[in-house]
Amino acid sequence: MSTDLRLLSADGLDAHRDGLAALLLDAVADGASVGFLAAATRQEAAAWWASLRPSVADGSRLLWVARDGAGRVLGTVALVRESKPNGRHRAELVKLLVHRDARGAGLGRRLLTHAEDAARAAGLTLLLLDTQAGSPAEHLYRTAGWTPFGTVPGHAATPDGVLADTAHYYKQLRP
Q1: Are 3 and 68 in contact (CB under 8 A)?
Q2: For residue 1, what pLDDT band results from cuts at 50, 70 and 90?
Q3: Which helix (H) or strand (E) holds 169?
Q4: pTM to 2 decimals?
Q5: Among the residues of 30-172, which ranges form H helices?
């Protein structure tokens, strides 16, 4: 499956908001602990993406979207840069999502690698992320060279409301 990967501007975020909302709801329906419960609506998901507009506009959040040839959103990933002076060398990798229809073709790894390369190009030397402990995402992060550094028990609820552990990872970037 061929995909187009692009960095979104604030206007691009607006243009892709419905597709991003559908992607987020697909992840939630598949059980991903990504901040939303199973009862989340399309309007709530779209409003959450809209709330990111200021951080995308000011460049503190770099947000990429992967689309198929028909323009359907199949994946996304973002880097949120630290704004405090003592942490400007790092960012958090957030919302790496791949639609169920596009899984198994390497899109998640492509998004991850793209975000890491962009972080390097921006002069960042440290990336952080968290994910549900025991999730398939952990395999991706470990095989991509990320290092686990702790687990918080009962940190976040799964879409069905059950508290789950969250695993934290970091990756030191080399130029």
Answers
A1: yes
A2: low
A3: strand 163-172
A4: 0.95
A5: 42-51, 53-57, 107-121, 136-143
Two tokens, residue 102: 């596009």
Residue found under tokens 């947000």: 63
Nearest 5°: CA angle at 112, between 108 and 115?
A: 140
Residue pair 154/163 in contact by the 8 Å Cβ criterion: yes
Tokens of 28: 């939630």
pLDDT digits (tens, 9 = 90+) for 53-104: 999 999 999 999 999 999 999 999 999 999 999 999 999 999 999 999 999 9
Q: How many separate domains does the chain show?
A: 1
Length of the chain: 175
What's the Cα-to-Cα distance from 53 to each of 1, 43, 80, 146, rounded to whole Å? Answer: 29, 16, 13, 29
DSSP codes of every residue in 1-32: ---EEEE--HHHHHHHHHHHHHHHHHHHHTT-
CATH (domain of 92)? 3.40.630.30
Range of 94's domain? 4-172
